[in-house]
């Protein structure tokens, strides 16, 4: 039932916050990240604003100020609290945010059980179902962002606190030896975009034909060990490997390694994870890389990044599996591995509308379309992606310099 799915998704957000203190939940580590408390409130604001406000009889807001405080980027809704100041919101506290969630959840449950569920209100109930589905997918996106933001926040502490108990971490299973095999694809005219009756975001539509030249994909993701070889070969000091903007980015920030990597007193590499600071696992997928770093590595390796069309062609028909935290390992086997559930994979494709794309009317049309500029597409899913939230047509997108997301590298090359 729809209400069961609603309750499951909503409860999972609260479970993600359980290992954290109230102080953890209120802090904001950088402009691109948001406090856990804000994520929990904003996802609730979505249901209150786009469903209850338009469909509930005698609607009254839980708190009038929340309409501004927890609006993210919906200009069609009204004013927004400045993003950079989300971490300054000491009030409302976590208890008030939990009460806000409980109130909205009860009212959504009441709406689903109201006269809207009667046959004569079929159209209204269908609209409610569509909005609920979008709201739940939106909340699952924020569940993943919550984890990426928490990791960045905890990494700022010299104590390197763990989000999860290290004893619960699964032992890593080697994915492949250094130097991945290549899988060939014939290319041709392919159908790209979402197909079927399941949920998709508007940026996955319309499905359309696109020509793809013959190509190869690496069977697995680039590992920490392989990326370490790039570092030791002077990759961060070799200008010709980098895009011009990427080279300026590296030099201006003095970068020499991926986000969350550091050396201990003995010179050994360590990586901060959701389980705390740990020795670098050379066989695990390299993550938290920018597009600039991914592209430079690909050039150094004599390859390139795949286009999003190539990635989707290769992924069609592959079962979706979401891995544990941190990036876990599936059983080695023939063909492509780690397409889902480990880390998002950068493509060389700019985030742009598909031919014939039409955003939804009203404020909900701001969900994807207005960000189709100065972003690049990532495909797959990560270890932080909620179960059931990944598919071959899903188009994630970030600026080229973003590193706090679980993003990695799958290499591609042309077939001559």
Keywords:
416 residues; alpha+beta; Four Helix Bundle (Hemerythrin (Met), subunit A); four-stranded mixed sheet
How far is the N terminus from the C terminus? 52 Å
CATH topology of the largest domain: paralog of FGE (formylglycine-generating enzyme)
Q: Assign the structural class, choosing from mainly alpha, mainly beta, alpha/beta, alpha+beta, or little secondary structure.
A: alpha+beta
Beta-strand share of residues: 5-15%
Task: Give the helices and strands as they follow along the chain.
Answer: HHHHHHEEEEHHEEEHHEEEEE
Low-confidence stretches: 321-334
CATH class of the largest domain: Alpha Beta
In a few lines, what is going on in this structure?
It contains ten helices and twelve strands.
Description:
There is one protein chain. This protein has helices at residues 2-17, 22-26, 36-55, 66-69, 94-112, 122-155, 224-232, 244-253, 291-300, 308-315, and strands at residues 182-185, 188-192, 208-212, 215-218, 261-263, 269-273, 276-279, 344-350, 376-379, 396-398, 407-408, 412-414. It has 416 residues and is α+β, with helices and mostly antiparallel strands. It has 2 domains: 2-155, Four Helix Bundle (Hemerythrin (Met), subunit A) (Up-down Bundle), CATH 1.20.120; 169-414, paralog of FGE (formylglycine-generating enzyme) (Alpha-Beta Complex). Strand 5 and strand 6 form a beta hairpin. The radius of gyration is 22 Å and the shape is globular.
């Amino acid at each position: 039932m729809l209400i069961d799915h609603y309750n499951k998704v909503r409860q999972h957000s609260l479970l993600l916050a359980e290992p954290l203190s109230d102080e953890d939940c209120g802090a904001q580590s950088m402009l691109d990240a948001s406090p856990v408390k804000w994520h929990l409130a904003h996802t609730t604001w979505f249901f209150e604003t786009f469903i209850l406000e338009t469909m509930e009889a005698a609607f009254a807001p839980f708190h009038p100020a929340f309409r501004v405080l927890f609006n993210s980027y919906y200009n069609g809704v009204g004013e927004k609290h400045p993003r950079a100041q989300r971490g300054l919101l000491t009030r409302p506290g976590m208890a008030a945010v939990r009460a806000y969630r409980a109130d909205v959840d009860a009212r959504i449950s009441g709406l689903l059980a109201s006269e809207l569920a009667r046959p004569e209100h079929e159209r209204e109930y269908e609209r409610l179902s569509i909005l609920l589905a979008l709201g739940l997918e939106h909340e699952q996106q924020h569940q993943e962002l919550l984890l990426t933001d928490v990791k960045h926040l905890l990494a700022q502490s010299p104590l390197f606190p763990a989000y999860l108990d290290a004893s619960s971490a699964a032992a890593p299973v080697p994915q492949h030896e250094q130097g991945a095999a290549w899988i060939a694809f014939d290319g041709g005219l392919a159908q790209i975009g979402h197909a079927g009756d399941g949920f998709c975001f508007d940026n996955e539509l319309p499905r359309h034909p696109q020509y793809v030249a013959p190509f190869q994909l690496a069977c697995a993701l680039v590992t920490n060990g392989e990326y370490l070889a790039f570092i030791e070969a002077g990759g961060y000091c070799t200008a010709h490997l980098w895009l011009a903007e990427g080279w300026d980015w590296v030099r201006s920030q003095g970068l020499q390694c991926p986000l969350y990597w550091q050396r201990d007193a003995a010179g050994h590499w360590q990586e901060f994870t959701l389980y705390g600071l740990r020795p670098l696992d050379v066989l695990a997928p390299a993550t938290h890389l920018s597009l600039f770093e991914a592209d430079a590595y690909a050039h150094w390796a004599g390859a390139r990044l795949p286009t999003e069309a190539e990635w989707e062609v290769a992924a069609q028909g592959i079962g979706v599996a979401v891995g544990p935290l941190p990036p876990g390992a599936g059983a080695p086997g023939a063909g492509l591995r780690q397409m889902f559930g480990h880390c998002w994979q950068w493509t060389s494709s700019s985030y742009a509308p598909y031919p014939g794309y039409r955003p939804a009317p009203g404020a909900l049309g701001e969900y994807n379309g207005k960000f189709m500029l100065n972003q690049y597409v990532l495909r797959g899913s990560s270890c932080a992606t909620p179960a059931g939230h990944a598919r071959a047509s899903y188009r994630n997108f970030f600026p080229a310099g973003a590193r706090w997301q679980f993003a990695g590298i799958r290499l591609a090359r042309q077939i001559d």
